[in-house]
Specification:
Length: 177
């Protein structure tokens, strides 16, 4: 069985087009994580707060970020996919975040194969309401977990997302290539 983190390339044309491996589904509270040792998606926990993921959420293959995890990606979708689904996606923004003192930024992307998102090319194309919902989710999703502190640090454009993806690819190469 292929390891979706190590065996799948970052994307067909990274950083402009990436693969997103879905772990958590839009509209759900289940926090799934890909376990590269199994390999497969496992239930990590159910979110303690009464919130749900505002989009499909997962990681970018062959990436490693400053929090010592694969780089996180949130793919804006109309309908949830499924854990383990691979979405070809176009990065459009970067949300900066601190999770318990670690830089834990999130790439925001859209599916390349969904014409409903063709107009979303950069940060300004994401409505302020949706940006607020994503920010609110990450600000509050760990509130009821003891000892967890999360702070969102603002939004950056598509180029910042590209730069962060390249940084994550470089870290992956340094640690695992």
């Amino acid at each position: 069985m292929a390891n979706l983190w190590e065996d799948l390339e970052t994307g067909p044309d990274a950083p402009e087009t990436i693969y997103a491996v879905v772990e958590c589904l839009k509209g759900e509270r289940n926090k799934y994580e890909y376990d590269k040792d199994i390999p497969g998606v496992v239930l990590d926990r159910v979110l303690h707060s009464n919130v749900h993921y505002p989009a499909d959420y997962g990681f970018i293959p062959q990436s490693y970020y400053d929090d010592e995890d694969p780089f996180d990606v949130m793919v804006l979708v109309e309908d949830a996919t499924f854990p383990g689904c691979i979405i070809e996606a176009r990065p459009v923004a970067l949300m900066k975040m601190d999770d318990d003192g670690e830089q834990d930024d999130k790439v925001i992307a859209v599916p390349t194969e969904d014409p409903r998102f063709d107009h979303v090319q950069d940060l300004d194309d994401i409505t302020p309401q949706l940006r607020n919902e994503i920010d609110e989710f990450f600000t509050t999703y760990k509130n009821l977990e003891k000892g967890k502190e999360v702070e969102t640090l603002g939004w950056e454009d598509r180029q910042a997302a590209y730069d962060a993806i390249e940084h994550a690819q470089d870290l992956y190469d340094e640690h695992f290539a």
